[in-house]
Design a protein that fits this description.
By secondary structure, the chain is of the alpha/beta class. It has 7 helices and 11 strands.
Length: about 300
């Protein structure tokens, strides 16, 4: 087992104030360019033939989430929703399969809106546990929230999102400070901002963590968030056993259920399949397909 990657900086994640010793710039900041005007509606309509030429959905993570979409993972406190997104982020940044499912490798932007607490140790545990180093140029972390109801702030974030395969917002609530989660109007503005970010990636995916309500199953706040996004997963349970279930998918089969748990590594842990912990790789691949295809419906011998 290889040792964790060594870093030269004493504070690689900039946990201290990164601007405390930086002198003011000697030149004025660049102005944010104005967004390009859209062509008139008459130039944006599609014929039947042009409609058929639109690209088919492409997976970011096979049988899980697609490229050019917006996804939400919602769960109660302690149900590993942030661990799942961090696992997605590290897998996509390195190209490692996620739960035996191939991924589209590319750069990731992680907006850690709740701060850096535990984030460095989690990614270090991931690298150590899976024997992979996450390249510096494939994972960038923003250690502060971005107000999704502030058009200027969203424009700045769009610049950071450009060219990313995945942008993670963790959590939605911290990026809606002073907004009303129960307001369809406020939530609608936030959802629109998420799609602005998606468009800015030019082919990437936006993934957001959110909370469930007191019943631990219904997504908290206005239904506009669940109705507005492309994919929804929910997490239910604790670190010993979590049910990760897809409850919405606009294109393709909706059913996808996984049982996962947190396996202790170093001072943190990594996400593993609770069903396949002791299986060989080929058996894990088969189990992943079976659970994804038949987890909620069951299967006959002929189906299997």
């Amino acid at each position: 087992m290889s040792a964790p990657r060594l870093v030269e900086a004493d504070d690689p994640w900039n946990l201290a104030d990164p601007y405390s010793d930086v002198p003011p710039p000697s030149h004025p900041p660049e102005e944010t360019p104005a967004p390009r005007a859209k062509p008139p509606l008459r130039d944006r309509v599609l014929t039947r033939g042009a409609l058929a030429q639109l690209p088919e959905p492409e997976p970011l993570i096979d049988r899980t989430i697609d490229r050019r979409t917006v996804a939400v993972i919602a769960g109660h406190f302690g149900s590993l929703k942030s661990f799942v997104l961090q696992d997605w982020a590290a897998s996509i940044a390195t190209g490692r399969k996620w739960m035996s499912r191939p991924v589209h490798q590319g750069p990731v932007l992680y907006v850690a809106a709740e701060g850096a607490h535990g984030l460095h140790s989690r990614f270090t545990a991931w690298e150590y546990g899976w024997h992979r180093n996450i390249p510096d140029d494939h994972l960038t972390v923003l250690l502060e929230p971005v107000n999704l109801l502030d058009a200027q702030a969203v424009t700045e974030l769009c610049h950071l999102a450009a060219g990313r395969a995945l942008v993670v917002i963790d959590t939605l609530a911290r990026c809606m400070v002073a907004a009303d989660e129960n307001s369809a109007k406020d939530m609608g503005i936030a959802v629109d901002a998420l799609y602005r970010l998606r468009d800015a990636t030019n082919g990437g995916t936006i993934a957001v963590t959110h909370h469930t309500g007191k019943d631990r199953s219904t997504i908290r706040g206005s239904s506009a968030i669940e109705a507005g996004v492309d994919t929804v997963y929910t997490t239910e349970g604790d670190a010993h056993l979590v049910h990760l279930k897809r409850t919405k998918r606009k294109d393709g089969p909706r059913e996808d259920q996984l049982q996962i748990k947190l396996s202790a590594v170093l001072d943190s842990g990594v996400i593993v399949s609770a069903l396949a912990a002791d299986m060989k790789p080929n058996a894990r691949d088969l189990m992943s397909v079976f659970v994804s295809a038949f987890g909620s419906t069951g299967a006959s011998k002929a189906d299997l």
